Amino acid sequence: MPWYKRSKKSFQPSQTLAFFIPAYIAAGPLGIGADLSPDIGPKGSNGGRGYRIVNRGIVNRQPEPSDVLPATPGFEDTITQHERQVPLDAPNERSGLIARDLSPVGQREPGIQKEGENQDRATPPAAVGTQSVHPDGNAQETVQSGESRVAIRDWKDRAIGVVGIAADIAMGAAEAFSPLKATLATISAVYAQYQGTAAVMDKVESLRSRVAALEEVFKKPIDDDAEKKRRKELQIKFKSIEETLRLFPQKSLILRVADHVKDNEDVSGLLEDLREAINDYQMVQQMAIYDQGCKLIDAAEKVILNNFRRAPGAGYQREGRKGCLKGTRRMVLDQIELWARDFTKLPVYWLNGLAGTGKSTIAQTIAERMFAEGQLGASFFCSRDFEDRSNLHFIFPTIAVQLARRYTKFRSIFVSLVDSDPDVAHDSLSNQMDKLIVQPLKETSISTIIVIDALDECKDKESTSAILSVLAQFVLQVPKVKFFLTGRPEPRIRKGFHLPLLTRATDIFLLHEVKPDQVNSDIRQFFKESFLELAYHHPGLDHWPAKEQMDLLCERAAGLFVYAVATVKFIDSQNYPPKKRLDLLLQSAGGSVHVGGTEFEENTSLDSLYRLILQGAFKSDGAEDDPKVHSVLAAIVLAANPLSPSAIATLLGVDPEDVTPILSSIHSLLILHEDISKPVRPFHKSFPDFITNPTRCTNQKLCISPSHHLGLLVPCLTLMNNTLEKNMCQLPEAVNNSQVEDLQERADKYISQGLQYACRFWHKHLVNEPTTKRDEITSALYCFLEKKFLYWLEVLSVLGALRNAVDALKFVGEWSEDTSLLDLANDCFRFVMGFFEVISTSAPHIYHSALPLSPKGSLVQRYYRSQVDPLAKVTCGVPDLWDPSIANASFPEFIRAVTLKQLYTVYPKSRGRDWEEIVFSSDGHLLAGHSWTEDCIVTWDLKTGGVIGEISTEKAGNCKSMSFSDCGTMLGVLFQKTIMTYNILSNTCISSHQVQEPAVGTIWTYGECLRFATVNSGSISIWQVGFTPAHTPTRVASLSTPEDFSSSSLVLLPTLSWLAFIVEGRVIVWDAQNHKVLLNHVDVEKPRIMSFSSSGLFFICGTEGTELYLWRKSPSGYLPHQKLVSRGIWNFPLVSPDGESVISITSYGKAIQLWHIAKSSTSFSGVSTQASCDHEDFLVDLSADESLIAVAQRTSHTVTIFAMKSGAPWLVIDADTVICGVKITKDKIIVIGDGKIVTWNLPGRDGDFSADRAHTVAFQNSGHVEYLRASVAPNLDYLAIASLRESEESLCVYNMHNGEKLAVARSEGWITGFTPDSCGVWISRYDGVVDQWTIVEEGGSNGLKLQKVGTWRTPQDGFPWHSPCGYQLTDDGRILSSSGKHLLWLPHHWRPNTKLQVRWGRNILVVWNEYLLEPIILKLEVYL
């Protein structure tokens, strides 16, 4: 029988009270309040006796003459430094008891004294001494108040008052719950006689709300037999406890004096039994409520919740987590529960503890208790063993999903948010917290507790914890929400809690500074219970182990619960008698104790235990030399996600029966399951730390080094190359993953656990370690990418892990030295990035959409062209090669931070055209941007993506440059004639200085000052100014300039005294220090914006067109390195600080692009360019039979005609005019130009590829041709021309045959067309609103007028952006058939931005946007 079941027998009244566990203090034998224990009374008092309490510990003094009885001998110790630095409510070293504050709710509990907190808050008058505890664990005692001793006498009255609390509880209970009433009444009687203590009375008080809740529940009639049974069992437990309690008042005075400590423990234990009984009942009750609530979630909401990106196993109910052993950690748990139940206390609680001190176990217990009381909203248990549970970006989405399942109102807001913004889970941490948690909680006013355990196990490269930075930003916005956090006191965690906003909102408990006696007592209790369990299963272990053995075990544990757990697991072996295992352990060298770092020190008792276990498992029969043993150990320790025994066997290509004995031999170090399909992982993180550290794991044969990663990489690649196949999960055609109801079942059935692991994590083992297997790995990677790449993407799509492909291909690029392999990996990377949304949403559309739409000359097309399975034919628009930029996107609607190593860019909401200057802090963590339209500076924290603040710059003028101070708290800004400095934390102006000469170039930080440059008569002066008002601008240097110097577009690289400027189209770089020209380039057409990399290694220049020119520094100056072509015009280029990447933002903020800088230089002439034009304004027309399509760029001079039969350009015509409209028939092409209508006769399809100019008709333009757009009626009789400039003749209708103007109208739009019968004309605005007129006769033979029919905001049939055959183009780029079948999914950069960039025929679709060099033409009927 398990120990936890057998131990419940001790609660029967017939058994001895010796089984009950701590913390009740009996009063004096005369019943007048004489104290025999030094910590009777609330914190800061001693009940009038002679002991002074210092916050969380107890400091003794000599007894006073007024004491009724002398203090117990041995209590007159002097104050020690250790006693001054114990955590709140730490037990006394001798008694292990707790001093509690029973002041009314809302009154300040003496404890942590926060920096900056109002010291005038009400505190109990009994407070004798307090201390300030900071996140780094330091504690300082404050001055004792002499007057406060008078108030200590009031403690007796307050203690008796708690008896009244218990009596009230008892009297308030319903008759239906009489056992509870009797039990609490007996407790009242006991404390009326014993006068009670803070430790027990706090527990009585904490039961008040729970009993009241039960009372209401028990009043309601029930029909459920299971519920009746649970209530009956609860009443029986209460009756048993009540009978036991009745024994206490019957004791004689002498026995009460003699047994006061034992009685205290027994009664306190009975209260624990009472609480656990209620907790067990409420846990079942809450689970029933939760399950019932989950059943009420409708199907659509379930899909959203289930598919939302999160860490499924992170909640407290998963992974079989266990809480604290009954009777242990009481002081810690009581303190946390007091904080949790009182919402007037600080909103954040940090359980700060060193490795192995039991933080996670305590967090599990708190989560269970809070759930039972209905207070727990969500929990996240971080674990570095799991990829998702160690990823910071999974924490807030996971918490949000749990809150949505828990609270109906929250769920409604959450579902609506995710439905409108599906990518919110990929936002910055700040946006995640704000959108997913803070805003819904504020709207719903939900009161709840959120538990986050083991923050130190998250992969966080920031110097200050990113999660805590975000929490500091938002915690005060949700006053009804409490956050319970645990973590080691690592530097980044401590820095996080030192943040000003978080410091004032956080209570801190130093777990590793709880009095050793209390911790050792808990560890001893764990050992006792564990050995009782062993004795139950192994006969002959009565009275075992001996007291000396138990003492030695507790000494070696040295306060580490992890040692105790490992010891018990080691002793409990199926193959060896427990006594022999214990003797073997105690005979081994114990090592020194744990000395208190965040990691374990070398040669501790724990290390000795690990060495002993490994030696016993593998020393015999040469097992430590067996490669299979090394591989299995590496699979356990180095796996990115825990592997099951069967998965390890599959991965390593061995029989499971070869794996299980190895695991069994070290079972005490692992979490094992009977089912070999369940994952195995180290029982504690300290074991991987030990076995991967050669200074701790002295047996080098068993030490796992980084090179063992390669021993897992090769099996992963081999397994994928041998087993991956197309459509392994047998998914239906064209289906989205979310539409497959049994997707998970299919994945588990067709993709083995080992293969799932290999597909997701093989790249984690691609490490740069010296190896003889490099050629073997390179060959395996070639095979994988050339033959299995798409099948691998299928699996990742089904598993929802496509982002792993991005990381994996980057890893290959960093690892490989083979140029051809690098090219292949880069091509595969471009394929994933280009079609990420398509592939991640639908595995079948890898073959339906992604592969058919990938560039014709790409390597992916070369190797997988035969796998194409299209449902629609792409006639035109598929490029030959990938776009040179590695990423591109339009500005989204919300702030995002995009990171490429050290390169950051922020997209501000609705401000894509506002920013005239942006700057990064020196550490890359902060960003500031100046908006000229809103006259403000906005600062962001790039670790979280959150806004720090806004600073008004009204009347300051245009911003020329900005620079952060080295500390990052101040910002210097150079305006047209002023230099101003700001404090970004307070958002205030520090100083303002006038600049006498015209300032140019940039402002930069120089030590603790700012520097800037001015130009006067061709001379450049360098000025220095401080961040404070006292330091005015001072000229400190001057720079020489060449003879042809111009301040036009001047750019400075101040660290090297280099200048860049433009003179008569020439780009010049001048070394002012050495008086040397570094660059004088004349082949850049219309140069405009220039910048240097921070080191000066690269110099880049953007033009008014699409080109960007990059030069690299050489001893002789700058040499051409690379030419880049942007998707937009007027680019603003920047080089990343590491010199590895280029970013370009197009003018008007339309797009952003990123490039990797080539490792070797390329000729500028070898890169094609494109015209400087606005690609979003194409003119497209289809012939009536849809055999021909005419395409022209508005304001260009040429028209391209595509023959749909061949799918290729058939004819290109020079229109000899600026084009503003086209019309094509089966035998004619009509071009509307600058005041003329030109018609060509088309040749026969098989004849001469030239057109004959038939005739030209002149007409009078209603405006400049650049502002006109024309359309021809289907019957070829009318011409409609719309002007962008609004006037009385914004819309004109002409006679196509003679150019006569027939009618005019005032309109707002300029996209025009005719109705199919040619009797009506319409015009559309960019917002989609359409105005329509009818052409009617108005006297005379040619008299016509336009009669307005109406205005429509969402017009449907009869317009070119709607298919006459029922096809649909959705906003997310999906093309659906009339039956709803998903035919094709356009990648993001192919999608139209508005419906005006769409043209439908019967079975033809043409789309375009500003990214495309030509429209995309799709033919849909071929595969239907």
Automatic annotation (TrEMBL):
<dbReference type="InterPro" id="IPR027417">
    <property type="entry name" value="P-loop_NTPase"/>
</dbReference>
<feature type="compositionally biased region" description="Basic and acidic residues">
    <location>
        <begin position="111"/>
        <end position="120"/>
    </location>
</feature>
<dbReference type="InterPro" id="IPR015943">
    <property type="entry name" value="WD40/YVTN_repeat-like_dom_sf"/>
</dbReference>
<dbReference type="InterPro" id="IPR056884">
    <property type="entry name" value="NPHP3-like_N"/>
</dbReference>
<feature type="region of interest" description="Disordered">
    <location>
        <begin position="97"/>
        <end position="140"/>
    </location>
</feature>
<dbReference type="InterPro" id="IPR007111">
    <property type="entry name" value="NACHT_NTPase"/>
</dbReference>
<protein>
    <recommendedName>
        <fullName>NACHT domain-containing protein</fullName>
    </recommendedName>
</protein>
<feature type="compositionally biased region" description="Polar residues">
    <location>
        <begin position="129"/>
        <end position="140"/>
    </location>
</feature>
<feature type="domain" description="NACHT">
    <location>
        <begin position="347"/>
        <end position="489"/>
    </location>
</feature>
<dbReference type="Pfam" id="PF24883">
    <property type="entry name" value="NPHP3_N"/>
</dbReference>
<keyword id="KW-0677">Repeat</keyword>
